[in-house]
Amino acid sequence: MTVGELTTPHALVPAARRTIAVVAGTRRSRAVASCVGWVLGAFGAVVAVWEVAKAAFAVPDATMPHLWSIVGAFGDTLPNGDNRALALVQALSVTLLEATVGLWVGVAIGGCVGVLAAKSRFASFTLTPVLVATQTFPLVAIVPALVIILGDGWVSLALIAAILAFFPIYVSVARAITDTSRAHRELFRSCGLPAVRVFASLELPRAALAVVSSLRTATALAVVGAIVAELPSGRPDGISMMLLSAASYYLTDPEALWCAALAAMAGGLVLVYAMSGLSSAAARWALRIPVEPKESR
User: Fold this and answer.
1) What single Pfam family name could you report for this chain, choosing any that match (predicted)?
2) N or C, which end of the chain is more exposed by having fewer CB within 10 Å?
3) 95 neighbors 226 (Cβ within 8 angstroms)
4) What value does the mean pLDDT of the chain take?
5) What is the distance between the alpha carbons of residues 99 and 269, in angstroms, rounded to a whole number?
6) Rounded Cα distance, 56 and 34, in Å
7) How far apart are CA 282 and CA 81, in angstroms?
């Protein structure tokens, strides 16, 4: 291969791709290391503040146990013979399944309603007050009625979680489509593209990126909705039942409630970052622009 062939754009494409991959991998590794460092630092700060506050105000162990006592309580054996950590994981998996189903139902509903509100001013003026009212109305007050109407199965609990999850998706999708530049729309129309193609090529990718950016908030709300929905339903295999059971024995076993609360928090964090990473990867794959060298004549 001659020097001229090596310096042609077609020959440089593979090398450029390798360079971009190396740079992206380095940045990703640094981002992961930075995230781990921040998590460990935050955990250390929480431990320090917890123990200092306990010592400074002389809080008894029955009210505020030591953190190492809470961590050790994960290995305790429950009255039914099960390990506490294993029982928490099993209960949490049920709740996270409800939250995941509710999340994607909320994404579908919020995305469709957001597109409708962005495309129709009448729909926007009509739906927005109603949707805002669904978020301001106390969920704890209407969950028992919804459980009676929809039943106490996991499907009804997932739908209740979707009530909380859909709103940030709706707002993000509607805003992304509404804020699309008029010049961009005119450019696409000047190419002779119909309205459907303009929506699919210009507005839909913006809406997809908006869903990715708001998915963390929606996931967290779906987890909260699933936990709250389990309380009046009396579902015995969810994390809410373990929270209620531990709360009733707080004076004699305070570590149990903190274990259940920490497990719920950890499960919510895992689900939030898992859904965020999955949606980001899907968006990068769907919006990728392949660079293929043309054949030289």
Assistant:
1) BPD_transp_1
2) C
3) yes
4) 83
5) 12
6) 32
7) 43
Q: What is the pTM of this model?
A: 0.79
CA distances from 141 to 112, 137, 144, 146, 240 (A): 27, 8, 7, 10, 17
- From the list 154, 123, 159, the residue with the least C-alpha distance to 142 is 159
Rg (CA), the chain: 25
118's CB contacts (< 8 A; 6+ apart) are 124, 173, 174, 177, 178, 203
- CA 56 to centroid of chain Cα atoms: 37
Q: Is there a contact between 173 and 114 (Cβ–Cβ < 8 Å)?
A: yes
Span 47-79, pLDDT tens digits: 889 889 888 888 888 888 988 899 999 999 888
Q: Which residue has the tokens 């967290």?
A: 220
